[in-house]
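Just wondering, does anyone understand these tokens?
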Amino acid sequence: MYIPFNKPVYLQEYDENIKKVLLKKNHFSSLGYFSKKSESLLNDLLNVNYSILTKSCTSALEMCALLLNIKQGDEIIMPSYTFVSTANAFVMRGGVPVFVDIKENDLNIDLNQIEKKISKRTKAVVVVHYAGISCNIEKLKKITKKYNLFLIEDAAQAFLSKYKNKYLGSYGDLSTFSFHETKNIHCGEGGALIINNKKFIKRAKILRDKGTNRDQFQKKFVKKYSWVDFGSSYALPEINAGFLYYQLLNSKKITRDRVNIWKKYFLLFSTLPKLKNLNYSNEIPKCKINGHIFYFLSKNKNQRDQIIDYFKRNNIQTTFHYIPLHESKMKNYCKFSGNFKITKKVSNTLIRLPLYSGLKDKELSKIFFYLKKMSNLFF
């Protein structure tokens, strides 16, 4: 019995329902029936005012850079421990990512280091909700307000996670989500831009539609539509939007399934003597998790590789995560100083365990068996 790290949810109702609607509407490209339904449902689920479906979270981040008018030399503070898109979206506009270390308890940006990194060229702070966990985002909002900076939430992993009973993605001026197949809710490849600062809405509609004012044309505000701004083909195709719609309808159940599995992992780690002394996914005060990732840290990189190989030999796929961006080939486009002690440690030692809706009890039993055996072999 092979157990993958991830198994994307597939809903049977998608097949017939989406086929009927697409053929009836005769609209397959973007900004159609399913896009409107999904955006409306997304607004309701997250209790936000405005959302735009995009082809990916990367696309949504690129729209953020455009909406903030990022220019050559503008600085954007963010963690180094994140996916490349968080930084690349701004580098493509001439922006300079300024990296900050993370905290070990939640793997989020270290708020105590942010003010030291602010300069006259700082334009925004990007917070990455790693594993669907939030930092003290209210404290972060106070910092950005104090220095008149924009706050962007990279909530790629945080769909339906909460901080103080408010959904992540509803705090920043702009927020982004991923609906890639590796995420809790997916449409193969997709994303969303959440616009909480209303001043960005009008321009965002133009940017997503190749820099044209077609939205205004369709609403009969202008007689013709034309090229009026920067932009690209950011809108999500209807086939993907239809797939996403049925995922969103079932999103709370899918999230409950994942959280229940997360809690079973947590119970095992918190009760087994040799596992409870490790650094592993934890319950963070004021945060409500979405069960996106359960991880633990090994002693060092060599042991991490040995443990991943141990699970592989037993037909269980586990995996590490990011290579720090300040260690990448693109580091010359960024600014960083200090030793990034926690970022380096986590990058070298973090191991993610299988977690997906539909993970069966017998599969979990197998994983738990080898986790217990691992604790005796390696710790």
Summary: The mean pLDDT is 95. The longest helix spans residues 251-271. The first strand starts at residue 51 and ends at 54. Residues 129 and 155 are 6 Å apart (CA to CA).
